Amino acid sequence: MLWPCLFLPYVAVATASIVSRSYQCGNQSYFTADNGIIRSHSGYDVGHDYGKNLDCVWTIEAPEGKFVQLVANAFHLEGSGFSCSYDYLQLFDGDSTNDNSLGKFCGNVFAPISSRQRFLTLNFVTDGSHGFRGFELFYNFTDHVMRTCLTGQFSCNNTNCVPGSYRCDGQDDCGDDSDEKNCQTGSTTHEFCAFGEFRCSNGNCISRQWICDGDNDCPDMSDETNCAVNVSRGCGQTNFTGTTGNISSPNFPLNYTSKLNCTYHVTAPVGTTSISFTFDRRFSIESSGIGTCTYDNVTISGMNGRNINGPFCGTIAPAPFEIHGDAADVRFITDSSAQRQGFMLTWSTEGLP
Ligand SMILES: *[C@@H]1O[C@H](CO)[C@@H](O)[C@H](O)[C@H]1NC(C)=O
Ligand SMILES: *[C@@H]1O[C@H](CO)[C@@H](O)[C@H](O)[C@H]1NC(C)=O
Ligand SMILES: *[C@@H]1O[C@H](CO)[C@@H](O)[C@H](O)[C@H]1NC(C)=O
Ligand SMILES: *[C@@H]1O[C@H](CO)[C@@H](O)[C@H](O)[C@H]1NC(C)=O
Ligand SMILES: *[C@@H]1O[C@H](CO)[C@@H](O)[C@H](O)[C@H]1NC(C)=O
Ligand SMILES: *[C@@H]1O[C@H](CO)[C@@H](O)[C@H](O)[C@H]1NC(C)=O
Ligand SMILES: *[C@@H]1O[C@H](CO)[C@@H](O)[C@H](O)[C@H]1NC(C)=O
Ligand SMILES: *[C@@H]1O[C@H](CO)[C@@H](O)[C@H](O)[C@H]1NC(C)=O
Ligand SMILES: *[C@@H]1O[C@H](CO)[C@@H](O)[C@H](O)[C@H]1NC(C)=O
């Protein structure tokens, strides 16, 4: 394991101040006021990634007759899909982690959800490897349950939940026959979708894994709106804030894909005078001949397209450079043929004069 070297910054923080689990999880674990914010960790505000081995629990209590609704302002955890085997946020329908699970969330996907009674408990768990940006969730109290069922259950139109296998089995298990509608093959419009699916505005049901992945799967774009992160087709996360971060070509260190047009926005704290860019030595972008990069290229520019560095291509990593100002764009464009490993760079405002 390399983590003792890779995570020296955290060790330094830990020895400089007393870092306890409760400190990392913030100073409040029980919420009763309407309209609140819950952040993944106490360093979220100042741009720190979350730490290793966290196990934070928060409970929200709504008044009698109300439900707790949760939406994400931002959501960036390690992992993806349904496995969520590294870091995850798990929600429980009640006032403890012993209550029914409403699902595990990781990666960049978090769809609005509500409790089915007046308590909602959140459990944020991280593994022993590196942290990501974390999340900021907004909650408030509502009069209506948002239609959600447990993993593997079908969500009936009348808000009942039945086992997913009951769908289209010829029996009315929901009580309103909704589990027996839209069963014929070829039907594309649904009044409701199974848990684990997202209902598009046009009535299509798609896997929740496809929400906010940069592809217009619905295809009415409803799966790509209200996303916590800005992604564009095949580019991954495109917005970066804080004082340092890494940006790499898609799939790095494996080959990038064809026909990309990715712009990664770097936004440093207001007043930052310059941002440094340092490329990893592993660098390989298809070149079109000595000194030209008309096939594939990466270009870094400052605000308003000034201070252009690049286009870069070839197999020799560009030397480190700085961009004046508190924002920069990294644009990576590829054509339809010949893919290579790509690039990885670290941007930072730290250690600059
Ligand atoms: C918790 O932290 C917030 C922001 O740092 C502060 O405003 C608040 O007073 C703290 N609450 C308690 C109970 O310490
Ligand atoms: C709760 O938040 C949702 C989403 O922002 C909003 O639509 C709703 O009106 C809010 N409800 C209350 C009671 O504040
Ligand atoms: C779902 O329920 C709503 C009202 O609760 C009703 O208007 C609608 O027709 C129902 N849809 C189906 C497919 O049963
Ligand atoms: C992404 O960056 C754009 C341009 O800098 C900005 O308008 C937008 O608010 C950012 N989105 C997020 C989620 O940070
Ligand atoms: C994504 O970025 C665009 C501009 O680059 C901005 O208009 C849009 O609001 C952003 N989306 C989100 C969810 O922040
Ligand atoms: C960037 O990558 C380097 C090397 O892989 C790693 O040590 C560092 O923690 C990363 N930084 C961030 C902010 O992800
Ligand atoms: C990349 O996208 C931008 C707009 O987002 C566009 O102006 C530019 O022409 C595109 N470049 C290529 C090579 O497609
Ligand atoms: C960068 O690559 C794209 C995609 O092949 C190409 O359209 C563009 O002209 C190249 N830019 C330069 C400056 O060569
Ligand atoms: C990456 O692309 C190069 C050249 O196009 C090819 O030789 C190599 O096999 C590819 N590697 C992978 C893992 O696909």
TrEMBL record:
Signal peptide as annotated in the record: 1-16
UniProt protein name: CUB domain-containing protein
Gene3D superfamilies, per the entry: Low-density Lipoprotein Receptor, Spermadhesin, CUB domain
Domain CUB: 25-142, 235-350
Organism encoding this protein: Dreissena polymorpha (Zebra mussel)
Keywords, in A-Z order: Disulfide bond, Glycoprotein, Repeat, Signal
CDD domains: CUB, LDLa
Domain of life, source organism: Eukaryota
Disulphide bridges: 149-161, 156-174, 168-183, 193-205, 200-218, 212-227, 235-262
